[in-house]
């Protein structure tokens, strides 16, 4: 029923083809009755949809949204104590770090909480949206973690973006961008800056951690890669 | 903070109608669509610092779409029945009355029957006038996939239209 060129014809109708592809599609359309019929039906559908008009947003919706935005000025963060490391099959390391995750957040404990969170993710839900494209990862993080950190792909420098996840960490919703370096994972955490003092860089249970502030977000990088690679990554991730 | 809110309102709120329309086509009812848009706008506001300019409409619609997907992930098995119910609740706009009301209802019902990926591509293309690149940015798939989904949306629609007769 459908000519094998129907995709090209469809793209041609949308004005998406250029150069040789455009010429070829036009030439084909001129002599293919199937595609001509498709073109006619597609045009009719297009007209019908344009006449249809959008469903209008209810009048009160704009006001409701603006009111909600005003309420956002000081977002309340309920204290959230991370539970023990994720379920059955958590590796020994994650299990041994679990006690760290239930400490209340403070500068000293932030590095330990981060490590516990990262270790649990390594053994459980590491990537919730798999993509190397920030056009995919950023809106996903905005929708699921409520913030949209850079999430750049550093594949050219040897740290390809593997995806992202939303995580509860130290009383915050954090957006995590997940990178690979060979067989290792580098996690880049971002959460809202609440004026909290950040700890100095360090090594916690074999994971290198570094914290910094940028814009109105706090960031942390954590990984078990070697020191030179870790420095390279944090330099990339923290540049303006 | 006030300045940030004003900037956000200036950049994101102009796309409120587009956001609501997309949510409406991807969800069960007007009430669902409202909830989704409110939720999406709040999330977009929280993430606003990460938005370094560019296409605000595509950015907002991508967040709306993500909110729809996560909300209805469990109910995905019966997308057709979901929307059929929703359309029956729809209150008519003045346009519905001006032009053959039954024709429009039939058209909406047929669009509602399309698989979700085809439906959203068609809405973004024909109602929001988005290019394949913009649709790709909103839906998070490659441009080739957008092209294929639109072609299949049109083919499926033709099939549905034929069956109607």
Give the strand order, joined by hyphens, for the main sheet of chain A.
1-2-3-4-7-6-5
Strand elements of chain B, count = 0
User: What would you call the shape of chain B?
Assistant: globular
Q: Provide mean pLDDT of chain B, rounded.
A: 82
Approximate helicity band of chain B: over 70%
Key structural traits:
heterodimer; A: 240 residues; alpha+beta; 7 strands; B: 165 residues; mainly alpha; 10 helices; globular
Condensed summary:
Chain A contains eight helices and seven strands. With 240 residues, chain A is α+β, with helices and mostly antiparallel strands. In chain B, 77% of the residues lie in helices and 0% in strands.
Notes on the structure:
The complex is a heterodimer of chains A (240) and B (165). Chain A is of the alpha+beta class and 240 residues long. Chain A has helices at 6-13, 19-31, 33-52, 59-71, 92-101, 107-122, 134-145, 227-238, and strands spanning 129-130, 161-169, 172-181, 184-192, 202-204, 207-214, 217-223. In chain A, strands 1-2-3-4-7-6-5 form a 7-stranded antiparallel β-sheet, sandwiched between helices. In chain A, strand 3 (172-181) and strand 4 (184-192) form a beta hairpin. The radius of gyration of chain A is 25 Å and the shape is elongated. Residues 74-92 of chain A have low confidence and may be disordered. By secondary structure, chain B is mainly alpha-helical. The longest helix of chain B is centred in the last third of the chain and has 22 residues, at 143-164. The N and C termini of chain B lie far apart (58 Å). Residues 77-89 of chain B have low confidence and may be disordered. At the A-B interface, helix 1, helix 3, helix 4 and helix 7 of A face helix 1, helix 2, helix 3, helix 4 and helix 7 of B.
What's the SSE blueprint?
The complex is a heterodimer of chains A (240) and B (165).
Chain A lengths: L5 H8 L5 H13 L1 H20 L6 H13 L20 H10 L5 H16 L6 E2 L3 H12 L15 E9 L2 E10 L2 E9 L9 E3 L2 E8 L2 E7 L3 H12 L2
Antiparallel strand pairs in A: 1-2, 2-3, 3-4, 4-7, 5-6, 6-7
Helix pairs in contact in A: 1-3, 5-6
Chain B lengths: L1 H11 L3 H11 L3 H17 L9 H17 L6 H11 L4 H5 L2 H13 L2 H12 L4 H8 L3 H22 L1
Helix pairs in contact in B: 2-3, 2-4, 3-4, 4-9, 5-7, 8-10, 9-10
């Amino acid at each position: 029923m459908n000519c094998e060129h129907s995709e090209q014809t469809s793209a041609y109708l949308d004005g998406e083809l250029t150069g040789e592809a455009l010429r070829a599609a036009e030439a084909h359309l001129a002599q293919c009755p199937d595609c001509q019929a498709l073109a006619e039906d597609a045009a009719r559908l297009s007209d019908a949809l344009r006449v249809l008009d959008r469903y209008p947003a209810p009048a009160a919706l704009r006001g409701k949204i603006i009111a909600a935005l005003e309420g956002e000025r000081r977002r309340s963060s309920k204290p959230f104590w991370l539970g023990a490391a994720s379920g059955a099959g958590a590796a020994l390391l994650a299990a041994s770090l679990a006690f760290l995750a239930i400490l209340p957040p403070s500068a000293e404990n932030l590095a330990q909480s981060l490590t516990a969170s990262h270790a649990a993710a390594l053994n459980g839900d590491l990537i919730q949206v798999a993509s190397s494209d920030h056009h995919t990862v950023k809106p996903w993080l905005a929708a699921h973690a409520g913030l949209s950190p850079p999430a750049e792909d550093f594949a050219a420098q040897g740290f390809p973006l593997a995806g992202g996840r939303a995580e509860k960490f130290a009383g915050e919703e954090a957006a995590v961008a997940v990178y690979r370096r060979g067989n290792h994972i580098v996690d880049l955490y971002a959460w809202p800056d609440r004026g909290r003092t950040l700890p100095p860089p360090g090594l916690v249970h074999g994971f290198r951690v570094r914290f910094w502030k940028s814009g109105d977000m706090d960031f942390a990088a954590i990984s078990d890669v070697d020191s030179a690679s870790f420095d390279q990554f944090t330099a990339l991730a923290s540049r303006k | 903070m006030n300045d940030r809110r004003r900037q956000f309102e200036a950049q994101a709120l102009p796309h409120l109608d587009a956001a609501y329309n997309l949510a409406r086509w991807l969800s069960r009812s007007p009430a669902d669509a409202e909830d989704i848009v409110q939720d999406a706008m709040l999330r977009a506001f929280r993430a606003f610092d990460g938005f370094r300019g560019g296409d605000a409409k595509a950015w907002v619609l991508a967040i709306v779409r993500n909110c729809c997907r996560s909300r209805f992930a469990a109910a995905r098995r019966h997308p057709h029945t979901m929307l059929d119910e929703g359309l029956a609740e729809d209150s008519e706009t003045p346009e519905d009355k001006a032009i053959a009301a039954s024709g429009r209802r039939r058209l909406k019902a047929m669009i509602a029957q399309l698989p979700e990926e085809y439906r959203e591509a068609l809405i973004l293309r024909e109602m929001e006038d988005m290019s394949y690149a913009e649709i790709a940015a909103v839906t998070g798939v490659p441009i080739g996939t957008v092209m294929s989904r639109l072609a299949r949306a049109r083919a499926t629609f033709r099939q549905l239209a034929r069956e109607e007769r």
